Amino acid sequence: MALHSLTLEQYFNRSHTAVPGGGPPFTTLLSHVGLVGKLLSRDLRLAGLLDVLGTSGDTNVQDEAVKKLDQIANETCVQVFQRSDVVCALASEEMEKPVIVSKPGRQAPYMVLFDPLDGSSNTDVNMPLGSIFSIVTHQPDDRPPGDRDLLQKGTDQLAAGYLLFGPSTMFVVATGKGVHGFTLDPGLGEYLLSHENMTIPTRGRIYAANEGNYQKWPEGTKRYFDHLKMDDKGTGRPYSGRYSGCLVADVHRILLNGGIYLYPAEAKKPEGKLRLLYEANPLALIVEQAGGLASTGTKRILDVQPERLHQRVPLLIGSRDDVREAEAFFAKS
Ligand code: AHM
Ligand code: MG
């Protein structure tokens, strides 16, 4: 059995993994994201025994029913990052406005945009869940950040990460120097390096999408899905369908095994479902740094200029050849 003995903090404190614009404050931020993961992992493990399943009765800024666990996860993130000395602003899929964490006389370097609980329809059925984080920098001047400072393109992210709450809890981080996965040892309370330099195969044999939406898709999108199901041993078709209802879990599988996740535009919903700043951008950074691609169908996700905090975007993400092929079909809609 391999000995996993390098912790997240030790790993990012080593000089050859140091992040440009990072240093000790960046490692502190990663360990605060890790703390969110430990707290949520503990809460999720006991969720079926406590009164935390189901909806809270509220709707969020996206007009979606808020689950009790959505609220708990959001509050956990806000509390941890508000107390962090290195964070100056927070924006969440669950909050209409950002939280500005002002510290008199000192400006913290990082802003964090997050989806506190991804795949929240899975909460009540004990299926995988995730949390997604995008980290951008705020120029160290005396001015506290405003809403517009959070509207940075995906290419401007310093780092991105996700927590996956599956049979084990994992923390996967992309910093500009590769993608690395850490697995939480709950006994030790430490994330240990388990997947160094993750790379995605150039083509896979699985697709992840909610095909219940088939009739709502443009013709080119329908033709792509029909194509995936046609027999062709040379390219591994028909592909297998694997859809969990949790973007993080589906993208994690694809990162390891190859393939493509799609939440495409619909004729009446051209902007798709997923959020650019909290979901698409951070996952696009991770998948691109692992050698894959992320696209709206016509454009690289990381090049989309955000106009609004809660902006949605169609998403095709995964193995390079699969995303390119899907784009070619979508172009002929
Ligand atoms: P959420 O962040 O509110 O949970 O929404 C995002 C989720 C993704 O995790 C998942 O891939 C998708 O929405 C599922 O949507 P649908 O139920 O329409 O298939
Ligand atoms: Mg989500």
UniProtKB/TrEMBL annotation:
<comment type="similarity">
    <text>Belongs to the FBPase class 1 family.</text>
</comment>
<dbReference type="Pfam" id="PF00316">
    <property type="entry name" value="FBPase"/>
</dbReference>
<feature type="binding site">
    <location>
        <position position="273"/>
    </location>
    <ligand>
        <name>substrate</name>
    </ligand>
</feature>
<dbReference type="GO" id="GO:0006000">
    <property type="term" value="P:fructose metabolic process"/>
</dbReference>
<feature type="binding site">
    <location>
        <position position="115"/>
    </location>
    <ligand>
        <name>Mg(2+) 2</name>
    </ligand>
</feature>
<dbReference type="GO" id="GO:0030388">
    <property type="term" value="P:fructose 1,6-bisphosphate metabolic process"/>
</dbReference>
<dbReference type="InterPro" id="IPR044015">
    <property type="entry name" value="FBPase_C_dom"/>
</dbReference>
<dbReference type="InterPro" id="IPR033391">
    <property type="entry name" value="FBPase_N"/>
</dbReference>
<keyword id="KW-0119">Carbohydrate metabolism</keyword>
<keyword id="KW-0378">Hydrolase</keyword>
<feature type="binding site">
    <location>
        <position position="93"/>
    </location>
    <ligand>
        <name>Mg(2+) 1</name>
    </ligand>
</feature>
<dbReference type="GO" id="GO:0042132">
    <property type="term" value="F:fructose 1,6-bisphosphate 1-phosphatase activity"/>
</dbReference>
<feature type="binding site">
    <location>
        <begin position="118"/>
        <end position="121"/>
    </location>
    <ligand>
        <name>substrate</name>
    </ligand>
</feature>
<dbReference type="GO" id="GO:0005829">
    <property type="term" value="C:cytosol"/>
</dbReference>
<keyword id="KW-0460">Magnesium</keyword>
<protein>
    <recommendedName>
        <fullName>Fructose-1,6-bisphosphatase class 1</fullName>
        <ecNumber>3.1.3.11</ecNumber>
    </recommendedName>
</protein>
<feature type="domain" description="Fructose-1-6-bisphosphatase class I N-terminal">
    <location>
        <begin position="25"/>
        <end position="196"/>
    </location>
</feature>
<feature type="binding site">
    <location>
        <position position="117"/>
    </location>
    <ligand>
        <name>Mg(2+) 1</name>
    </ligand>
</feature>
<feature type="binding site">
    <location>
        <position position="115"/>
    </location>
    <ligand>
        <name>Mg(2+) 1</name>
    </ligand>
</feature>
<dbReference type="InterPro" id="IPR020548">
    <property type="entry name" value="Fructose_bisphosphatase_AS"/>
</dbReference>
<feature type="binding site">
    <location>
        <position position="118"/>
    </location>
    <ligand>
        <name>Mg(2+) 2</name>
    </ligand>
</feature>
<comment type="pathway">
    <text>Carbohydrate biosynthesis; Calvin cycle.</text>
</comment>
<feature type="domain" description="Fructose-1-6-bisphosphatase class 1 C-terminal">
    <location>
        <begin position="200"/>
        <end position="329"/>
    </location>
</feature>
<keyword id="KW-0479">Metal-binding</keyword>
<keyword id="KW-0963">Cytoplasm</keyword>
<dbReference type="GO" id="GO:0006094">
    <property type="term" value="P:gluconeogenesis"/>
</dbReference>
<feature type="binding site">
    <location>
        <begin position="261"/>
        <end position="263"/>
    </location>
    <ligand>
        <name>substrate</name>
    </ligand>
</feature>
<dbReference type="InterPro" id="IPR000146">
    <property type="entry name" value="FBPase_class-1"/>
</dbReference>
<feature type="binding site">
    <location>
        <position position="279"/>
    </location>
    <ligand>
        <name>Mg(2+) 2</name>
    </ligand>
</feature>
<comment type="subunit">
    <text>Homotetramer.</text>
</comment>
<dbReference type="InterPro" id="IPR028343">
    <property type="entry name" value="FBPtase"/>
</dbReference>
<dbReference type="GO" id="GO:0000287">
    <property type="term" value="F:magnesium ion binding"/>
</dbReference>
<dbReference type="Pfam" id="PF18913">
    <property type="entry name" value="FBPase_C"/>
</dbReference>
<feature type="binding site">
    <location>
        <position position="210"/>
    </location>
    <ligand>
        <name>substrate</name>
    </ligand>
</feature>
<dbReference type="GO" id="GO:0006002">
    <property type="term" value="P:fructose 6-phosphate metabolic process"/>
</dbReference>
<dbReference type="GO" id="GO:0005986">
    <property type="term" value="P:sucrose biosynthetic process"/>
</dbReference>
<feature type="binding site">
    <location>
        <position position="243"/>
    </location>
    <ligand>
        <name>substrate</name>
    </ligand>
</feature>
